[in-house]
Design a protein that fits this description.
With 572 residues, this protein is an all-alpha fold. The chain has 24 helices and no strands.
Length: 572
Amino acid sequence: MFFFVTFAPVKRLLFLGMVLLLVLASCHNPQREARYMVRRAERLCDTLPDSTVTLIDSVLRMPVYFNEKHRMEMALLQGEALFGDHGQEIPPLMDDEFFDDKPFFTTSPELERAADYYARKKQYDKAAHAALYSGFIQQHYSEKTIAMQSFKDAEQYGGMAGDSLTVVFAKYWMGKMLFEDGSVQESVIILGNTEKGFNNNYSAKALVKNMLAVCHMVLGDFENAEMCLYQSLALSEKAHVNKVKCRVLNNYAVLYRLQGKFDLSLNNLRQTNECYNPNDAELFTFLLNMGKTFMAARRMDSATVYYQRIEDLLSVVHMKNETKVSAYGALSRFEEVQNNTQLALQYRQKHEEFLYEVIRQQQEQNIYRIQQQYDYENLQNTLNRKIIFRHRIILIISLLLFAATVAILALQMRHKRLREEEAEMKKQIDDLKNDLRQSVKTSYLEQELSSRLRLIISAYRKQKNGYDPKNEWSTIVYKLMNRRESLFDAVLVEMEKVYPSIYTVLRKKYPELNETETKVCLLSCSDLSNTEMAEILEMSKFTIDKNRSKLRDKLNLKPEKMKEQLHQVLSH
């Protein structure tokens, strides 16, 4: 009760502190909120991929610690949401215009590491996807060496995982990058082995054939180029994808223009314009191609009309700087053919200005990407520092609570030990008191015993001598002798009042003693003399002395301390 009264306030404060921590943790738990957002992003990946990307961006900016496994999973999830096939007519990984409206990817630094991570874990399917997505991003930012290595890794891991689709995507991009680097023949070899892997994806097959046709045109193999375009057109019509069909028709127009078949080229360009309702930028591209074709056909009047429309649209239509570079270059060449040197020079200057602008934009894009990567890593470092600081605070509080708990337990144990020592001391005192009482009682009983034994001996002598033959005295003597006829039996009954079952105890404790020796040992515990012992046992004094001597030898008793040693045995 004393301990409870003393330490109850401390217990209450500790309990309230722990409850408060639990309440605060349950009210705002960033770790739990982050996990909920990741699970929600996984559910939205197929239906609302843009929402998945936004959620992952938000999670990565939360002050929550993520281990390597979780970071790689989120990076891969964002890659699946961005580049996965969600029912698009053209696979995102083969769409040249995919990056036009896409911002910087938050997890792109993580995707570069995810392939190695999953490869170490022997999860080759995930490693293949991560490498493919990383290569796709790297080629967009013109990091061709890293991108090519990523596509090679995607091909290798995809083959190890049995993922043929990832393998053909990687080969498609390897072939396309080889074409852009000038290795056209190698590109043809790789792309030639790519088409079969797309199975029933006709739009993807059409794009592969279209790319092969471009390679053959560059090599001057117009026959194979035309055959590839024919197959690509058939596949695009089978896939019912107008966008792919327009690309094929546009390349048909380029092929016929290179062959000098200008009418067929113009016809294909018109078909391209009729495939679907083009926007302003696509209409501008159509006019530019028509102008180039008419100029190549030396139909200057028609070319003039189209180039005039192009000049009018340049300041109105919003288009890529690359398209403007191509337009001003075409206008410059057209004016040179028309011998308008001054106007051609102006267009050439515009061409160089926008070419410089394209280069500057690419540099800014690279700088922006590097800055974004730096900001992302810096953000992660900042978040990690906040998390570490928070964990340190939690650790300090936990240590304080632990120390307080240990202190309370130590005090409890100390108090318990004191109570046990107090109880033990009390018990020892009680035992000592009992021993003292017993000692006093035993001493008194021993003194009384000697008197009663001598009284019994005296009564026995008188009865034996016939001192009083009256019945009254005989009755008194009979009572004094404890209603026993034998003097030893009367003495034994009297001694057992002080030492219960003394004769039985001595027989069990010292089985080596015979009956006479046992009786002598019993009588030696009293203050009787050898003569009195001889009278009780009806023996001579010499016999008593002889038996006492044997008794000392057998029990290893000292003559002067024989009685005390026997008393110690009887007391135990």
